UniProtKB/TrEMBL annotation:
<dbReference type="Pfam" id="PF06781">
    <property type="entry name" value="CrgA"/>
</dbReference>
<protein>
    <recommendedName>
        <fullName>Cell division protein CrgA</fullName>
    </recommendedName>
</protein>
<dbReference type="GO" id="GO:0005886">
    <property type="term" value="C:plasma membrane"/>
</dbReference>
<comment type="function">
    <text>Involved in cell division.</text>
</comment>
<comment type="similarity">
    <text>Belongs to the CrgA family.</text>
</comment>
<keyword id="KW-1003">Cell membrane</keyword>
<dbReference type="InterPro" id="IPR009619">
    <property type="entry name" value="CrgA"/>
</dbReference>
<keyword id="KW-1133">Transmembrane helix</keyword>
<keyword id="KW-0812">Transmembrane</keyword>
<feature type="transmembrane region" description="Helical">
    <location>
        <begin position="63"/>
        <end position="82"/>
    </location>
</feature>
<dbReference type="GO" id="GO:0051301">
    <property type="term" value="P:cell division"/>
</dbReference>
<keyword id="KW-0132">Cell division</keyword>
<feature type="transmembrane region" description="Helical">
    <location>
        <begin position="29"/>
        <end position="51"/>
    </location>
</feature>
<keyword id="KW-0472">Membrane</keyword>
<keyword id="KW-0131">Cell cycle</keyword>
Length: 83
């Protein structure tokens, strides 16, 4: 039985114009803002407890705890923008 002719296949070469380009996401502000909100909330709550309610805002009473947790929740909200 005769052998068929073998075709020579050329190896694949990627196009010369394709280069790896790192694109900046433009969200470098997210991590510092997130950490700042976490720390502000934590400091707010700790200050309230350490000063027995006379700081940061005495007239708010126990609502100071909610404000502190609000800052922390805002930090989690900002963290959803992080890539």
């Amino acid at each position: 039985m005769p052998k068929s002719r073998l075709r020579k296949k050329s190896d694949y070469t990627p196009p010369a114009t394709a280069t790896a380009v790192k694109i900046s996401s433009g969200r470098s502000w997210v991590a510092p803002v997130m950490l700042a909100l976490f720390l502000i909330g934590l400091v707010w709550i700790v200050t309230y407890y350490v000063t027995s309610g006379s700081w940061p805002v005495q007239s708010w009473g126990n609502w100071n705890i909610l404000v502190g947790f609000g800052f922390i929740a805002a930090g989690f909200g900002v963290s959803t923008q992080w890539k």
